[in-house]
Design a protein that fits this description.
The complex is a heterodimer of chains A (441) and B (219).
Chain A (H helix, E strand, L loop, with lengths): L6 E2 L11 H15 L1 H10 L11 H6 L11 H10 L4 H6 L8 H13 L17 H14 L3 E2 H13 L9 H12 L12 E3 L3 H5 L2 H14 L3 E3 L9 H5 L2 H17 L4 E4 L3 H15 L6 E4 H10 L4 E2 L6 E5 L2 H4 L6 H9 L3 E2 L25 H17 L4 E4 L2 H14 L5 E3 H7 L1 E2 L6
Parallel strand pairs in A: 3-4, 3-5, 5-6, 8-9, 8-10, 10-11
Antiparallel strand pairs in A: 1-2, 7-12
Chain B lengths: L2 H6 L1 H22 L14 H14 L5 H27 L1 H11 L8 H24 L1 H6 L2 H22 L5 H18 L7 H18 L5
The chains are: A alpha/beta (441), B mainly alpha (219).
Chain lengths: 441, 219
């Protein structure tokens, strides 16, 4: 397999064959055996209508049929039919479904990683009700097992699995966190032995948006919440999720779960990071093997709760006409639609919704690890044009979101397109408009 | 035994047996695969997401407003020929008599002339669907033998049915035998191909709706 495609061998178990075809054969067999009744039903149900293409921003931007969402799992459908479907013996006996080849999967790496944000929009359009993004997530697991995770995602996942940080940094994140506290004049609660709320932080914020880290700490301080960051469970993102490394995803989640248990946290608070929310809120307990002994809340949900309870009061924000980008993992795959809007309403914001908003919002284009894949950038930019147009069409002066990876994707687009808008963090806006009268002083 | 006797005798019995066993096997075959327990705490109560699942069976019958501009015409075409098929299969008096012999009860039918008109319209829509499948780049890429054979055998049943009703192309007994034989082939093919979506469509929508509602998301 060529290095040019960004292919790296995944985490091979001792004694496992290292020839690409043997690895692919083993991964596809594993995929078929692990598929489960629900995903099998999804694969069985496809009627090849192609309607899912019309929900996908990659297809809409390019009109290239290969970006049809269900096509992205075609080799896996082939593997399922050959290995695990009710008529699998017939498919094998008559050679109706061939074995998936290493070359075939190598081509599919582009479709499963570079051109899919796992945003789930296709799951809302399918007349058969197939959750295509769930299939794509399972296909990514098999790609990882076949040694076909893109190198950027694989390397970051490997590093995070080994060290807790997706990338090496000149100064450990713990030290950077304390420096941010000093720089912004806010207390950073760190390594308290017990707290009601455990905080974690997107590494994107540590590296790119330290003001968002300070905003989180400032809001907690204002609300007088018993909370703490934990040095051994700081990073919210989960590159195991992006790369498709299920065991790594589990171990990375376990780092946070164990720290939350160690400090007796009642709640694990997910900061402004969409995929971290999916990984912790909707997948971590399954990987843990039992229900989590604490709640998992996204920061916007938590703040909306505080608002409703009267503990959080906000003053009017002078943002002018404002629009909001719903991160896919929070709204479409996470069910958080009202919380950010409640916060904006409390700040007296005049919200001008995007043409496609809420559950139907288009992805920023960077989700699912796509932002990290260098070779995917040209396609990502092409895909983003529609989203940027939607934002421009609102006539909004201020553009908010609640996911730091979305924010970084839009910032990158601003530089690429010399776009005249910069996304702002909803959390930072809340922190800047804290008002006395609630729990605050 | 003449051809008609064979078509509606042993051939039909074998076809119905393959149909029944095949459908059950195909459903049981995947339903017995592992069902993972979801340990993640739901946002909504089980009652709420079950209701949402049932609601999605209906709501997914038509695209959300956000999608309708891109998919409305294609879906309308798809539903139109399905409606035509249901009318012809369920409301043509000879079909009702046949189905009544299987189920033990009958219902009123539509006049033959009306059924003929609907059949011709349905066949026209079928041709439009095939044209779309071979000219639309996405559908062409996704299509395989299953799509074309399922189309062919269903269209053949309509054509032979029309020929038999209109007494076109040969003696009525032979035309009827050919029509019933085409139905026999369709029944045998049914469990192996995409025609199974007739059994899948409602549970599949319901599951999608329930899974999304469990998270509090729109479906």
């Amino acid at each position: 397999m060529s290095e040019a495609t960004g292919v790296l061998p995944a985490d091979l178990a001792p004694g496992q064959s290292e020839t690409p075809q043997a690895r692919v054969a083993s991964a596809m067999k594993g995929f078929a055996q692990e598929i489960g009744a629900l995903s099998a039903f999804r694969l069985e149900s496809c009627i090849h209508c192609g309607i899912c293409a019309d929900a996908c921003h990659f297809y809409i931007a390019t009109e290239d049929p290969q970006y049809t969402p269900i096509w992205k799992v075609e080799p896996f459908k082939q593997a399922y039919k050959r290995e695990a479907s009710p008529f699998a013996p017939l498919f094998r006996l008559f050679g109706l479904k061939r074995e998936v080849t290493a070359d075939q999967l190598e081509h599919w790496q582009h479709l499963l990683f570079d051109s899919c944000n796992m945003c789930g929009r296709c799951s809302l359009i399918c007349p058969m009700g197939i959750d295509v993004s769930a299939l794509i997530e399972q296909a990514r697991h098999a790609m990882f097992d076949a040694g076909l995770a893109p190198k950027e995602l694989y390397q970051k996942a490997a590093h995070q699995h080994a060290t807790g940080q997706p990338e090496p940094s000149a100064e450990p994140y713990r030290e950077q966190l304390l420096s941010i506290g000093e720089r912004f004049g806010v207390d950073i609660p760190l390594d308290k032995p017990a707290a009601d709320l455990m905080l974690c932080v997107p590494r994107t914020d540590i590296e790119h948006y330290p003001s968002a880290v300070a905003a989180l700490a400032r809001v907690m301080q204002h609300l007088r919440i018993s909370c703490t960051f934990r040095s051994d469970g700081l990073v919210a993102e989960n590159y195991g999720y992006y790369a498709g490394g299920k065991n790594w995803q589990r171990d990375i989640s376990l780092r946070l779960i164990e720290q939350a248990i160690a400090c007796n946290a009642k709640t694990l608070l997910v900061p402004e990071c969409g995929h971290a929310y999916t990984a912790l809120r909707w997948e971590a307990a399954d990987l843990y093997g039992k229900p989590l002994p604490f709640k998992v809340r996204h920061v916007t949900e938590f703040l909306a709760d505080e608002l409703r309870a009267g503990r959080l009061k906000l003053s009017a924000a002078a943002t002018g006409k404002t629009t909001f980008h719903d991160p896919c993992q929070l709204v479409r795959k996470g069910g958080i639609n009202d919380a950010p809007r409640e916060l904006m309403t409390a700040m007296g914001i005049e919200l001008s919704e995007l043409k496609n908003h809420g559950g139907f919002s288009f992805c920023c284009g960077g989700g699912g690890g796509v932002l990290d894949i260098e070779r995917a950038a040209p396609l990502r930019y092409r895909t983003m044009e529609n989203k940027l147009r939607e934002i421009d069409d609102t006539g909004a002066k201020t553009f908010l979101t609640s996911c730091s990876d979305c924010r970084r994707t839009f910032d990158d687009a601003q530089a690429h397109f010399t776009w005249d808008k910069a996304p702002r963090s909803l959390l930072e806006l809340v922190a800047a408009n804290l008002s006395v009268g609630g729990n605050g002083t | 035994m003449d051809l008609l006797g064979f078509a509606r005798g042993p051939a039909l019995k074998v076809a119905l047996a393959v149909f029944c066993v095949g459908v059950v096997w195909r459903i049981v075959g995947f339903a017995l695969l592992r069902i993972r327990r979801d340990f993640n705490k739901p946002r909504n109560s089980i009652i709420k997401f079950m209701i949402a699942g049932v609601a999605t069976v209906g709501s997914r019958s038509w695209p959300h407003p956000e999608f309708i501009g891109r998919t409305g015409a294609g879906e309308a075409l798809g539903y139109s020929y399905h409606i035509g098929l249901f009318i012809v299969v369920l409301l043509f008096t000879p079909h009702i008599i046949f189905l009544g012999s299987l189920f033990g009860f009958t219902w009123p039918g539509l006049p033959s002339s009306l059924i003929t008109v609907v059949s011709v319209l349905t066949l026209t829509l079928f041709l439009a669907v095939l044209f779309r499948r071979v000219t639309n780049p996405v559908m062409r890429m996704l299509s395989n033998f299953d799509d074309y054979f399922s189309w062919f055998i269903t269209a053949l049943v309509i054509v032979t049915g029309l020929a038999a009703t209109a007494h076109l192309g040969g003696p009525y007994q032979t035309l009827l035998a050919v029509h019933i034989l085409s139905v026999d082939v369709l029944l045998v093919w049914f469990p192996f191909g995409k025609l199974m979506h007739a059994f899948y469509i409602f549970p599949s929508r319901a599951i999608n709706g329930a899974v999304l509602a469990r998270k509090g998301a729109v479906s």
